[in-house]
Amino acid sequence: MTEDAAYRASTQYKLWSFTPSQLSAFRASTNALAATRVRAAIQRAREAQKKAGVDIGEEGEVDCLTVEEEEKLVGYYCGKAMELADFLEFPSAVKATAVQYLKRFYLSNSPMTYHPKPLMLTSLFLATKTENHYTRLTSFASRIPGKKPTTPEDVIAPEFLLTQGLRFTFEVRHPFRGLEGGVMGLLGMVRKDGGLAGLEGGDVRERIHLAHSKAKHLLKTSALLTDAYFLATPSQLWLAALLAADRPLALCYLSTITPSPTHEESPNNEPLSTNTKLLAQLSSISQLLLSPPAHTTDMEEARRVDKKVYFCRNPEKVDLRMLGKRGSESEDGGRKRRKQEDKGDGDGGVFG
To answer: Considering all CA atoms of the chain, what is the largest pairwise distance in Å, rounded to the nearest integer?
Structure first.
C-alpha cells in the first residue's frame, strides 16, 4: 500500500478533511442548530421558573453567538491549550493533538452548548493518552494553574462527551516527521562544495537549517490554530510550510521529487500540469499558514464573547459532570444489553 493510499484509508481523511466551502457550511449548520436548541431550552427554563413562582422579569430575545464569534472563542481556548501544554512541558505531538481534538469537537458542537474551558483540559489529558505520554490524572489536575483548584473529576467529567464529538476517532496525523524527512533529504542533496543544484549562492546548509526552523515554527503555531489540518494532508502541510519559509529552496526540492520541472505559471490556454496544480495548492496553504490565526483574538474581545455566551448557554447542558455520568451509564447499559443478547437472555434472544 502506498503512503497516499494509507492516508486515504485513515479516519483523518475520511471524517476530518473538507473543502473551504464544506467547512463553512458545516459550521453554519452547527451554529444554527445550536441557536435553535438554546432558545428552546431557555424558554423551557423560563416556563419552569414561572410555574415555581419565580419572578424572571422581562423576557427578551436570546442573543446567540454568530459563527465568527464561536470561532473566536474556540480559537482563544486553543491558544490557551497550547500555553498550558508548554507550561506542563508536554511534547509537541501532545499539544498539537489536543488542539485538533478541540477544533474537531467544535465542528459539530457549539460553545453555546458546551463551554470550551472544561473541554480544553479534557482534550489535553486525552491527548496524553492517545500520544502515549503517560500522565497520572491526579498529577495533571494538581498542576493546572488557577484561583480554584482543579479536581480529577473536573478533568474526566466531559471525557465521554468529548469522545462522542470526536466520533471515537483519536488518531491525528501530524506533518512534523515529514518535515524532518524532507530536511534530511535536502541536506543529503548538498554537494561537497556546499552548493545545491538549482540554487545559486554559497553554502546552502545554513539556509536549509534556517528554513527548517521557520517551517517548524509555522507547523507548531499557525498550522494548529488555522483550518490547515482540515484543508490539507500532512505532506501538503510541511511542504507548504517550507514554501512559506524559503520559496526558492522549496521549489528546488519539489523539482527533485516531481516527474518534471515545476513552473510557477502555466502557459496560456493550456491545461494545468500536475506540478502546477500542486504548486497552486501549496501556495494557497502557505498563505493560510502566514495569515493571523484565530488565537490572536485579544483579551477584551475574548471577554466580550465569553460574557455573551453566559447569557446564551443551554441551561440543560451546563453540568458536565452529570452529563458525563449519564453518558457513561448509558454506555455501560448498552454493553450489558449486548452481553445479555449474546447469551440469549435479552429481548433479542433465540426464543424472542
So the answer is: 87
User: 3-class SS at 10?
Assistant: coil
Q: Could you tell me if residue 122 is left (phi over 0), alpha (psi between -120 and 50 degrees) or otherwise beta?
A: alpha
Nine-digit cell string for 156: 474526566
The DSSP-derived string for 307-349 is HHHHTSS-GGG--HHHHHHHHHHHHHHHHHHHHHHHHT-STTS
Q: What is the pLDDT of residues 148-184, one digit of tens each?
A: 999 999 999 999 999 999 999 999 999 999 999 999 9
Query: DSSP of 113-172, one letter per residue?
Result: TS-HHHHHHHHHHHHHHHTT----HHHHHHT--SSSPPPHHHHHTTHHHHHHHTTT----
> How far apart (Å, rounded) are the C-alpha atoms in residues 300 and 292?
17
Q: Tens digit of pLDDT for each residue in 202-220?
A: 678 889 999 999 999 999 9
- Pull the grid cell for residue 3: 503512503
Q: pLDDT tens for residues 305-320?
A: 999 999 999 998 888 8
Q: How far apart are CA 6 and CA 224, in angstroms?
A: 23
Q: Which of 66, 147, 159 has its CA nearest to residue 105? A: 159
Other beta carbons within 10 angstroms of residue 199's beta carbon come to 17
